[in-house]
Amino acid sequence: MAETIPLNTTATQGTTCKLHPQSMCPAFGSLRILTRMEGSHPVMATDTGCLYGLTFITHFYGARKSILAPQLGTAELLDGKVVEGTRAAIEVAAREPGCRLIPVISLCVAETAGLPEELLPQRAGDADVVLVRVPAYAIHSHAEAKDVAMEALLRRLGDRSAPREERTVVIMGEVFPADQIAIDSILRRMGAAGTVALPGRAIDDLRRAGRAAALAPLHPFYKSTIKLFREWDVPVVGGAPVGVSGSFAWLKTLGSLVGLDPELVRQVAEEERDRAQAIVDAKPLSGARILVTGYEGTELAYARMLVEAGADVPYVSTSIGTDPLVLPDELWLKARGTREIVYRKALEEDVDALDRYPPDFVLGTTPFCAVAKERGIPAMYFTNQVASRPFFLSGGLEAILNFMSDALGRGDRYRDMHAFFAE
After folding, report:
1. What's the pTM value of the predicted model, to 2 decimals?
2. How many helices (H) and strands (E) does the chain have?
3. Fewer Cβ atoms within 10 Å of its own Cβ: the N or the C terminal residue of the chain?
4. What is the distance in angstroms between the CA of the first residue and the CA of the last residue of the chain?
């Protein structure tokens, strides 16, 4: 079991909250993927303040549908009308045109007041009703809330009655669209019948996922979803097609697990490895010191890619917790010079690392990037600048290394601006 490295400065020891890493409300992770599904009309059981904030940020990220909610103020809570209000909102959602799914997203207030699942309908009109419990006091990151939503939907809607679709793989992870296309293409070249991409827009993909031959979670935080597939006796492919060695190992493992032709798998995997190595050779990050921090849950995989390209990554932090799926990347990084890997991180720990490992570049959360920029260090917001780009296989490797090379080349500008304003 990996451990969180203790802080070295007395100023931060004893004051860092490890229960709630500093990120957005975790409910956003569930709401984001549930609103994007066609035929899904979410009901959010929460108080007015949370409803406003989460609705705002969800629409900011592209939701184009109403989010229904009961009025849950002090009076309603005192009168014990959480269930009645939620049932009424479900009935309204069921009347929305084309409604096939009503996810009921239960947040802190509803969970504290009590929202028994057995008192909610299983169906309303033509729609399935699925309760998704995402209280912030129990779920520590928005990435892990995506896992909660997917496990709830698959447990209810995954179809296990039909025969298994041999050579079909569920690709689990909210990724850049080009990544999904690239992964599907290379797996078909290896002989796979196709992929099912989750989280996705189609409700029918949830049903089809229950018949898949294997699960490939591209992100390590889908713990509950992985557990469900194991209950279904569906094999799980660990790791992800990241960088040179990671992509090669992932393709070989997946091909073996699904029963594809070994010689064809080897040929395709070696071709992909050679392309990735050529990209690294053309765009090395030799000697650059980079700190990788964030709350997306993919920070270790990104750090691995950067180290493979020649960068020094002494410190990595993430908001997700430890898990066996993360351990291979952790061991790989530590064997190649990464000194500290922090799970359930907080801003204070990242700032402390900035003092110990003065970097050439920082990938981090908005507040941490602000601290770095104040010191004249180039910094980019992990979520919007890196996690929103292709990442997997050789195409993703090329996109990330091009971006990083460009960002590292701006170091003199940051230092000049810092010196100018310091005068």
Report:
1. 0.88
2. 17, 12
3. C
4. 48
